[in-house]
Amino acid sequence: MERYETLVYDTVLSTLVAVLIYVLLKVSVDGYRQWRARARVLVVGSGPVGLTAALIAARSGKVERLVLLEERCRTALLSRPQQIALDSRSVRFLLGLGVDFDNMEGCWHNEHFFTKVGVFQEYLLSLLEKRKQEMNIQILLGTKFTEEYLKKIPASEFPRVIIVCDGSCGESSSVLGISSDYIVESCNAYGANAALERADQRQVPTPEIRAHSLYFDLSAYGVEFASSSKEGQGSQPSALKSGSHLKIYGTFRNRYMALACPMSDSKVVKFLRHTPNSSIMKNIFHQSFNAYKTDIEPRVNDLTIHLLQCSRRLFEIMLSHRRVTAAYIEGDNVVVTIEGEAARVLNFDTGCGVNLGLNGLESLEEFIYKVATAADQNDVFEALSGKIRHSKQLADDFRRNGLTVTMFQ
Ligand SMILES: Cc1cc2nc3c(=O)[nH]c(=O)nc-3n(C[C@H](O)[C@H](O)[C@H](O)COP(=O)(O)OP(=O)(O)OC[C@H]3O[C@@H](n4cnc5c(N)ncnc54)[C@H](O)[C@@H]3O)c2cc1C
Fold first, then answer.
1. Looking at residues 279-289, what average pLDDT do you find?
2. Ligand 1 center to residue 103 CA distance, Å?
3. Were both Cys, which of 93, 96, 159, 388 would link to 40 (CB 3.0–4.6 Å)?
């Protein structure tokens, strides 16, 4: 009996030791495999989103080779005059990526950093160029991503991850055979945009100006003037101020304006939605600019009014977002993610557009890590579904709160 017990004890013990050794071995082999795992990454487009995506990839520690493509040449890319506004969330995100705002031309206001697209791109390019000493990075400016480009990549250099950041007019996803279908959804608001280009003005970063609860007296056009708090409220949340919301942004040379109001069927809104008289909208922007501009810039007058271009009437603000924002290309064993304005874009310029693109990149490092360390296809699909969920969440959040944050507050 005693011998039998000893035998059982020995068997249990040796099984336990064998299991323990197996688990330890597996954990260390998996750990070593994950630690060693690297993926080749291709970023298409060097706009603010593409360059930030490249920086994320470079810092992820999971990239074997990084190629950044841009169809424009360096001068064209870096001389883009538009201003971008980085909100506090984007600023925190970029600080985490090592962006030093003290070393970038721009200005701060209300926790936003205002700079020119070209300046931001040049700064990110310099960070990437510095990284070239530590890792394999190829920056190909003046090179377009096309079918021919793809065909020419040798099998041994073919990317495992392609990050498409080619902007709202890009066609790279079609080159990869990914559907260009968009879901177009209302943001439950109306808006209009204006641009004022004055070549004699300065091109330096300038804080935005916001004005709320504006009411326009259109009685001269036969529309009853209404300034009561009920007018214009429609179905908007009660916390939201009624009336229209105006933003003036951009540099003094390239001034932009955005006018938006929550959806309503007030008389003024209805009139501005359907009037065939485009001079009414122009007049509204003209008067609003002169009323809210900074003191140190000139007014728009009869001599300069022709420099003001604007929407003819109020239109419904819509968010278009891609049906497919991430995909797996089976034959080539490549995963693709679509970012920035290539993934989601508004038909209305809020003056904060770049942030929606940067928010999408918050899940990029995890995505690259998961794909690089994937043991099988299930892991790859899990990485893809996480990315798709995040992209969908962003579009939903923007439709719910985006205009409140960028325009109505
Ligand atoms: C007039 C105007 C004023 C604006 N003002 C503001 C503002 O005040 N604040 C703000 O936050 N945002 C503003 N925006 C929006 C902001 O510019 C965009 O949100 C931002 O540029 C989008 O970045 P992106 O990288 O997604 O796309 P993009 O900046 O469009 O970059 C895409 C890049 O991909 C390249 N590309 C395209 N196809 C290919 C290809 N096949 N191969 C290689 N490269 C390719 C393009 O050349 C381009 O450089 C403004 C936009 C405009 C047009």
1. 96
2. 22
3. 159
Spacing, Cα 32 to ligand 1 middle (Å)? 40
Instruction: Identify whether the C-beta of residue 387 lies closer than 8 Å to the C-beta of residue 326.
Output: yes
**What is the architecture, at CATH level 2, of domain 44-181+323-408?**
3-Layer(bba) Sandwich (3.50)
pLDDT for residue 98 is more than 50:
yes
Alpha-carbon distances, residue 175 vs 146, 159, 179, 329 (angstroms):
6, 15, 10, 12
Q: Is 145 in the pocket of ligand 1 (CB under 6 A)?
A: yes
Q: Is the CB of residue 106 below 6 angstroms from any atom belonging to ligand 1?
A: no
**Sequence-distant (≥ 6) Cβ neighbours of residue 350 within 8 angstroms:** 247, 258, 260, 402, 403, 406, 407
* Integer Cα distance of 283 and 280 in angstroms: 5
Residues 29 and 35: their CA atoms lie apart, in Å, by 10
The residues of the chain that CATH labels 3.50.50.60 are 44-181+323-408
Q: Is the pLDDT of residue 237 over 80?
A: no
The Cα–Cα gap between 369 and 376 comes to 14
CB 207 within 8 A of CB 112: yes
Amino acid identity at 253: R
Residue 2, pLDDT above cutoff 80 = no
DSSP code of residue 362: G
Find, among 381, 391, 378, 401, the residue nearest to 323 by Cα. Answer: 391
Q: Both ends of the chain: CA-CA distance in Å?
A: 83
Q: Is the dihedral of CA 68, 134, 361, 32 positive or negative?
A: positive
Q: Cα dihedral angle (247, 250, 256, 259), rounded to 10 degrees? A: -10
Cα 1 versus chain centre, distance: 74
Task: Give the Å distance between the CA of 49 and the centre of ligand 1.
Answer: 8
Backbone angles phi, psi at 146, to 5 degrees: -140, 175
d(CA 364, CA 342): 15
Q: In this predicted model, what pLDDT tens digit does every residue of 176-229 receive, in sequence order?
A: 999 999 999 999 999 999 999 999 999 999 999 999 999 988 888 888 765 544
